[in-house]
Design goal:
The protein is of the alpha+beta class. It folds into 3 domains: 30 residues; 150 residues, Glutaredoxin, CATH 3.40.30; 52 residues, no CATH class. 48% of the residues lie in helices and 21% in strands. The radius of gyration is 21 Å and the shape is globular. Keywords: Copper, Disulfide bond, Membrane, Metal-binding, Transmembrane, Transmembrane helix.
């Protein structure tokens, strides 16, 4: 009986928050969406700045900030890398759980050696820059829905530039896109976005874990994530602890 009560309370809690979430969405720079599994990320292997092959799904960090760009980009790419590094710093100790990743859309010029010099211009030590064969990078871009195009630019020394989409993608450790940020989102806004997500996820998992052991039931990881995203979606984090404690009291009666 207690199991049913807990399940129903959590479900109603999530539905109620989801009902109000659409209002909050309109005012956010973060686009919350259904988690999207990126199969290509789970199997792709690219080269880092040491010219070593790195399986993307082995990159450490509970969350990854992924940005597609190129080293000759004059404005948006440097801005994105500064913002991502700033977000890591803003998180403080939690920054160790966040890994910013820069993936080249210009393999013709972006060798591991060039990227090694490029990333040294930006603050922080966690930034990872990756490149690879054009076919590999194209497949990865397609998996993310990223579009890039080589454009003739005779006025430039190399004779071309690359037009590309400017989004920062947030991936979890299961190769799923949890949210996206438009290019130009500053570090504080990034931190606020997934920083709250970190906090809410921890509270929900702690609550479910303690009650699962006590009442002998299990809730799937997907359902946990739905609860977390509904709470985050509604921007009611300041009420989470109170509601969870009330629910815990109900289940113990």
């Amino acid at each position: 009986m207690k199991e049913r009560i807990l399940f129903v309370v959590i479900l109603l809690f999530g539905i109620g928050l989801g009902f109000f979430g659409w209002k909050v969405w309109k005012f956010r720079s973060v686009r919350i969406q259904k988690p999207i599994f990126v199969e290509e990320w789970s199997k792709a292997v690219l080269k880092n700045t040491q010219n070593l092959k790195i399986p993307l799904n082995k990159i450490p960090g509970k969350l990854k900030l992924v940005y597609f760009g190129f080293s000759h980009c004059p404005d948006m790419c440097p801005r994105a890398l500064i913002d991502m590094s700033s977000a890591v710093k803003e998180l403080g100790d939690e920054g160790k759980n966040l890994t910013p990743i820069f993936i080249s859309v210009d393999p013709e010029r972006d060798s591991p050696e060039l990227l090694a010099k490029y990333v040294k211009q930006f603050p922080g030590e966690r930034l990872i820059a990756l490149t690879g064969e054009k076919s590999e990078l194209d497949s990865l871009q397609n998996a993310f829905g990223v579009v890039s195009k080589k454009v003739s630019a005779p006025q430039l020394e190399e004779g071309y530039t690359v037009d590309h989409m400017v989004f920062i993608y947030v991936l979890d450790d299961q190769s799923r896109i949890l949210m996206t940020f438009p290019g130009g989102t500053d570090g504080k806004t990034l931190r606020k976005g997934f920083g709250n997500f970190f906090n809410i996820q921890f509270e929900v998992e702690q609550f479910i874990s303690s009650n699962s052991k006590k009442n002998g039931f299990r809730i799937s990881e997907n359902f946990k994530l739905i609860i977390v995203k509904m709470i985050y979606y509604s921007s009611l984090h300041n009420r989470v602890s109170k509601i969870l404690h009330q629910t815990r009291d109900l289940c113990s009666n």
